[in-house]
Amino acid sequence: MNLFGAVVFFTLLLTFFVKLVSELLNLKASEAGVPDEFIELFDEEAYRKSRDYLSVSTRFSLFAAAVDLSFLLLFWFAGGFNLLDQFLRGYGYSPIVCGVLYIGALLLMQTVIDLPFSLYKTFVIEAKFGFNKTTPAVFVADLLKTILLSLLLGIPLLAAVLWFFETAGSMAWLLAWGGITMVSLLLQYIAPTWIMPLFNKFVPLEEGDLKSAIMQYAAKVEFPLSGIFVLDGSKRSAKANAFFTGFGKRKRIALFDTLIEAHPVHELVAVLAHEIGHFKKKHIIVNLVLSFCNLGALFFLLSLVMNNRSLFDAFFMKDLSVYGSLIFFSLLYTPVEWILSLLLQLLSRKHEYEADAYAVSTFERGTALADALKKLSRNNLSNLTPHPFYVFLNYSHPPVLQRIMRIREYAADRDANS
Description:
Elements: H1 3-29, H2 44-77, H3 80-89, H4 95-128, H5 136-167, H6 172-195, E1 202-204, H7 209-220, E2 227-231, E3 242-245, E4 252-256, H8 257-262, H9 265-280, H10 283-304, H11 309-314, H12 322-332, H13 334-362, H14 368-379, H15 388-394, H16 400-417
Helix pairs in contact: 1-2, 1-15, 2-4, 4-5, 4-12, 5-6, 6-10, 7-9, 9-13, 9-14, 13-16, 14-16
Subcellular location: Endoplasmic reticulum membrane
Main location: endoplasmic reticulum
Transmembrane segments: 56-78, 90-113, 147-165, 172-194, 214-231, 284-306, 326-347
């Protein structure tokens, strides 16, 4: 095993070990008991259920990660990457066609490996704790739609990237970066209208107190909306959510039907005020710019190791190829991606606090956001006392208790300055 292989191998083992330690610490931290803030909502039975859900989910997550890692290492050291490559090369396809088939075959194998875990999580774990509403027909339909979209969108994009690196020389990384960036922006624009409705029904929110309150608040903060929609999230899960989609004049609010059923009007408006805060604070733009910068850096670094003989030797490959470089570089890039993800999650947690502050400062009943968060935690069986190390590694949002305490501080500051 050369240096490239050693870096990939030990990174895979290290990330799994860190995941194992953080998960065990998180389970231990859940024994702290119900925080005072939640006593009114979490009785002993509810808290026991939330801990059981965490325990079952954690064990399942660790087992799935161990299986994924084992399959990858077995495939690698059994020479699977080279065997698949030689098999496809035997058909005499062009490098681009061969590359699409090679990467497609690897993704298909990953899908087949992950499918039993997805089925078990949905129909056993989520069902056991009262969350699953997905029928087998909906599950299969979602899977087929996802595969079809992946083929329709993924094949042309992958072929284009391969073509750039096959033909454009030193400019390939820049062209690939620019092409993927443009397509990503286009998808952000068309997804609310053409893609998301393939999976869920978006029904315009009917006239009433909720719609009036939302429109009144949106007008107050000068946030134009092209529509407020109710999403049939209940056909898949009892969990609740809300989100914004689209850009410019095509901005939409999507409320899960489960969210509307569980919260009064003022709490729903507070939740939406938080989401609007992300737009007002430019968090969406910042995240897009950072993701595109990361993509550009990834393509540039890829160009530096393109068709590197030592990298291919690490995976026992006989022949060099652009598509092989894509796969092996993605594994080599794992430690960099891991560190970047920690930094991005740190920024995301900061953004969540800022959006909470915006909601409190612009909505007269902004502290209702704290009440909404508590109810969401109760209904979703959230972990109320996550371990700080686990939060550092995995949380894009601050722990709910910390958010609630900050919301109270923001409200006190607002009242003091009014």
